[in-house]
Here is the input.
Amino acid sequence: MILQINNLRSIVIAGCLIPLLWLFIDIAFDNLGSNSVQALHIRLGDWSLRFLCLTLAVTPIQIITKWRGLADYRQLLGLYAFFYGTLHVLAYLLIDHGLIWHMISIDIIESPYIWLGLLSYIIVFLLALTSSKWAKKRMGKNWKRLHRFIYLAAIAAVMHYFWQLKGNLAEPFFYSIIAFLLLSFRILVWIKNRQLKKIMILKDRRTMVLPEEPDKITETIHNSTEH
Amino acid sequence: MIIKSKKEIPASEITDPLIFRERRNIIKAALATMAAAVVDIPPTLADDNNSVWANLPKGDFPDDLLKPTPAESVKNYTNYYELALNKQDSTQLAQNLRTDSWAVEISGEVEKPGNYYLEDILRQQTLQEYVYRFRCVEGWSMVVPWVGFPLAKLLRMVKPLSSARFVKFTAVYQPDTMPRQHNNAMLEWPYVEGLRIDEAMHPLTILAVGMYGDILPKQNGAPLRLIVPWKYGFKSIKAVVKIELLKKPPVTSWTQFAPSEYGFYSNVNPAVAHPRWSQNSERQLGSSFFTPRRKTELFNGYGEQVASLYSDMDLRHFF
Here is the structure.
């Protein structure tokens, strides 16, 4: 059983590297088109955003499908969002700008769409830095507060995508819908929890509650608010 | 108008009449093919090594330092929103366009308005090769050897009146072959662009019918497009069907779409950023992973020729 789980984990770890392998193949066979540097850069950004969306989708999918094991992969998916995000940033600095800092600084100062990307990356960076169990224990309640910023990171990343385009808005529109759905799911859960809490308080006041019942409710709340 | 330039046309660049006549025959032959081309002209004609216009004389401002971008990169990276919102799909989609027996309507403030067949227009023009930098507002650039003639020569033929202050260009409206036009996507169709009359009469401004020694591929604006090398690429309207000389500036498509982002002038200027992104540098098409971006030049490097057109203007305000 343990071996099986570990196997699955290794498959997921390796599977998340397929986009990178695919990119290397496209580079080797010159498949990136006329503007290959931009294609490479955008591909990496795309995968960072996709992993960010997947990370956010873990809890909703878990609640809907009641598939508990999925939560074990949240950290991994988040780290991959960070991994591709880092490659995206490195491609920008190293390949597109050849580390010419003068050019880079003007570009960043004059391009609001990059500010959003930078904000998103800083958040994901901090989350990756504090993603270990050790950090989670040490930070206590602040950990959850910090990690809620993943929503801001997702919104900023989608806007970063939108703002750089002159025309084709189909893809960023797709991601905005995904981000919107994931966010609204969380808001719905939050509203439901508030109602449950209210019911609990009412029940506490009025009658002696059977011991199993509040436990059950607390458990649901605990599960659904967990990230 | 006198344009002062250090670069003069050397005598060697002036076409020998014999070559000139021969070239005319080639053009006629080419146009005959175009007219007969119910069968599509393959987009990769240049690769066959028997190009239509080999060794044309260079245009007015030759720059030997400019190295053309590989033709394949230019042919497969086009913003043709009438066809597709990405830059690859238009290569295929454009092949459905009907470009045979093309005519251009010239009207407005001119002595000789009319509907002119492209064939007749070309019969009066000497084609030359113009190797120009092309800078897109999106931050990428290329160097293209266009085949064409100065717009001024066509305009002089129809004799603009003194009241003509602006020139409006309208692109083809063919919704049955242009899927995005059919869907009314993005912009108001047909696409419209405009120039001030002195910009239109400037010898750098050309109408192109070819590139890389061949007929213009359909996705690159066949059969006739404008090229204004010191302005962002969207000013260089493709598939022109109408040229109007006006008293007042026309409302151009991108300005109408987002007036705060795309101005009437849209001169290449690294110091004036787009509201959402910097214009300080550009990625050259076909460049390798080890070549950093190129610093963008004021007026795309054509300041020597065109800066005087804007000498009394605040380029930040008239962006």
Summary: The longest helix of chain B spans residues 17-36. Chain B touches chain A at residues 72-74, 76-77, 79, 81, 85-88, 137-138, 140, 186, 273, 275-281, 283, 285-287, 289-293, 295 (CB under 8 Å). The longest strand of chain B covers residues 140-150. The CA atoms of residues 170 and 192 of chain B lie 5 Å apart.
